[in-house]
Amino acid sequence: MVHKHHRSGSGGGWLSPTKIALYVFLGIVAFFLITEHLAHLIPILPYLLFLLCPLMHLFMHGGHGGNQDDRSPR
Description:
By secondary structure, the chain is mainly α. Helix content is 54%, strand content 0%. It starts with 16 loop residues before the first helix and ends in a 15-residue tail after the last helix.
C-alpha cells in the first residue's frame, strides 16, 4: 500500500505571509514591553547588582578547588 503525501506551499514554511505578520507583531510587542519596563527597571539596577553578589559567591566557588575530600599532600 503506497501513501502519497501532498503538501501545499501555504502555511508550512517559516516565511508564509501569516507567519511574517505574526513575527512583525511579536517584534513590535516585544519592543514596547522592553522600553516601557526598562523605565521601571533602570532605578533598581544597582540594588539588583548587590543582590546578585551573594548568589555569585555561593554558586561560583566550585572552580576554586577548596572543597576537596582527599587529604594527600601536593
